[in-house]
Amino acid sequence: MLKINLKSAVLTLLVIASSIPIASYSKDQTMGFFLEKKCLFSGFSGVLVDKGSPLANVELHRKVEYRDKLYEDKVITDKDGRFTFESLWVRPIIDDIDQFAAHQYIKTHTIDSEILIWRGGKLDPKEHAEFGYKIKNSICDISNTLKTMNSNPASNGIVISICEITEKGI
Hints:
Layout: H1 6-18, E1 38-41, E2 44-50, E3 53-54, E4 59-66, E5 69-76, E6 82-85, E7 88-90, E8 102-109, E9 114-122, E10 134-141, E11 147-148, E12 157-161, E13 163-169
């Protein structure tokens, strides 16, 4: 009669099971259970000013609409009007059925009104696809009128903003 050590058998099965891949995953393919992360809003830094004067302690509200869901966060400018938004990422459970599309907004509120700082649409889930490059720094003057920011043919989106790009990165 064959005697089996139960503890040893269970450990052997766990070692074997842990070496079998449940799903394959690569940057180029979204096979298996885990999909690639998607960047809904690429991060950037800037300075908020009014006719050149820094605006300190101002809340900037960022909103992104993606797949009928709203993602929101905010930053507060420092004493020199500086702010930084980190890139906003999601990892969907299921992939996009048709075209990826993220609708972006940044606004601030004054006592009298709401000021639109940024409105955009992004058609590619890669980071910095809005422009085709990284924005390292920008100046956002609330006295400016909205204008199209990106004229780069490599971009996969459109952004209108009061901001002017002062430094690009890789």
